[in-house]
Predict the structure of UPF0344 protein SAMN05216498_1905.
Amino acid sequence: MDALYYNTHLHITTWVVGIILFLVVLALLKQSNEKAAKITHMILRLFYILIIVSGAILFFSNYIDTSGGTFAESIVKSLAGIWLVAAMEMILARVKKGQSSFAGWLQFALALILVLALGFGRLPLGILP
């Protein structure tokens, strides 16, 4: 197996763990378990860094060739991934403050659809031909 295979799986794994941790932090905040939520939130922020670093590795090792037809789509996917991380953080901050998080959830849904459609459907490392 080559490094591309491992980088791709690292990126997908960090995203899956990140979303699971996001849901755990949400549940802990809903239960008013502040200490556990704070610790888990800090671990989630570490995973945000891992997600961004693994995504940057994928981008620079695969899509930096400007002659390819997927360069613009990879830029959009990268920006949507950062947008998704920001939306997750916005939701957690608003829930912690007891404010409405509708705008965060809307952004989360839009960014997630965009990331999944580009990542798995359009770009070469996805599952669709």
